[in-house]
Amino acid sequence: MGGRSYGIDPETCAFMAAEIEKATKAGTEVVVVLGGGNIFRGAAAEQHGMDRVTGDYIGMLATVMNSLALGSALDKVGVENRVQSALEMPKVCEPYIYKRAIRHLEKGRVVIVAAGSGHPYFSTDTAAAVRACELKCDAFLKATKVDGVHDKDPEKHAGTKRFDELSYLEVINNPEIKAMDGTAITLCMENNLPVIVFELMKEGNILRVAGGEKIGTIIK
Q: Domain 138-220 is classified in which CATH homologous superfamily?
């Protein structure tokens, strides 16, 4: 969304593509799972009377639009990629197939997974955790607007404390820590998948995290 109030900002897409390019050039295999909140939020729509399942499906379609936009931006910087959707729409992207995703990664392509898990009631975080476990990723990198996990929402409170490291149980048991939803963090815990929460829009951060530099907050 960038500085806009709604929709897709081409400059933000270009920035993200350039950041992902740096990581791929360094040899990192990258799987991207995008949300759709810049276009539509199912949870917010439910509060205004929309059926939850319908709202979730519309949200999944929003993630497909974001995924296509990022794929186009990656094309422009010469990064080969494939958009795979959990909801089949063969005229615009591939269906998500586990072995096909693995093959794309082996060929050096970025895999962009759209439409979440393809099921309502599951967040984008949970869908990302499922794909990360399924594709045997080394880490779940949660790129956000802030520089890590804080004891309170830093966008609403002054003088918050940022954590360098947290355990899965600390996140699950403390309702003030809103790093990600409980289903996603529990899945990561059960599969020993470390989660790194870091600021997306800071130049070089994706490369730093992929290279093992300690930035943001690690949950393990």
A: Acetylglutamate kinase-like (3.40.1160.10)
